[in-house]
Write a structure and sequence with these properties.
8-stranded mixed sheet, 3 domains, 39% helix, alpha+beta, 4-stranded antiparallel sheet, 13 helices, SHOCT, single chain, Tetrahydropterin Synthase, Chain A
Amino acid sequence: MGVLRALGDSFSGTLADQWKDIFTAGRFDEHVVVAPGVLQSTNRGRGANVRGSEGVITSGSLIYVPENTAAFIFSGSGIENVISQPGTYEYQNGQQSIFNGGGIGESLFSQMGERLGYGGISGDYKRIAFVNLREIRDIKFGTRGPLMYNDKFYGTDLEIFAYGSFAIKVIDPVRFVRNFVPPNVMSYTFDDPAARSQVLSDFLQSFIVAVNSLSAECRISQLPAKANEIAQCVHSDPANAGTWRERFGFDCVKVSIENIEFSPESRELVKQFSSNKMNVKAYEGVSVEAGNMAAQQKIAQGIQDGGLGEMGGMLFGMNMAQGLGPVGQMPGTPGAGAWPGQPTAASVTNPSSEIAPAEPAASASAVKPQALSLDDQLNAVKKLKELLDAGILSQDEFDAKKKQILGL
């Protein structure tokens, strides 16, 4: 019973495989890198080559090779032939056909006898697959954890997350099929997590190396504009993605950085840094004169609040504040208590004093200032200490004024 069935299958299979075949590439999408050859058996309902055996290619069959693809013909010995140029090719290494010049004896009876020995099927098994030679674009990547980046502008290590995509291109299709595509696979896409995982692992390792190599010259905000430099670093990395051409026959040809963001902790550090910098810049444009004026007002107000009275606090504060300049003056020294542009008491009472001859020393003793009492000295030192604590006076200024007040 089995022999009769095998005989019938041999006869019907041989007749069905006499038709010459037409093969072309299957549909490619953005991430498909290997697609099986598709048999064109019908056209708008017309066509009789619908019962041919799987894995049998008849001599005289046509193979259409589209642009940016390479056709692979596989047989029992592995890769039988590779067609890397677009065009239409005729295959002449298949089974004989009466439609390709073969005789009836060779094309029919010889094949029927061979198939009968295999239980009614052909001993040939050939397949056609097409490899995508264009860029495989928009392969998404993202750092799985925070990436440390030493930003020289901030002067510290910051944690960042990077997101983007990269593109690869098959350069050596034979090496790619032999070393990267799993055996006996006619369809392969980088949408498959198993296919993408190894590529992503190598890429992220090279991406981290490339990004850190730019930390000495680039701020974090400049990294998206350095995508070309990063792609070149990834391409030349001798340990990971840079070995793809040698190992797998494809290269990383483009890197696009879509977003770089801080971790929550680093974002808080940057905000604090920016806030402090703005506070410092707010005082950079203040002139020395304006700063001295503000200090004078604070000194006068502080002494007034300390209990010397409204007029006493005002006058005493003004006299003290005048000593904040580069040449300090104690109350009672020439010019003390006079505002810029105002004449002194001596110049008002005697306008011609500038050209008058010098008076004896006894006349100078008549304008000797009255010395501060002990309580006034202590209160003045106390107020100066408060100004020192508030940051208005420096330590050197405080020490100098204290010596002047105490007469040391």
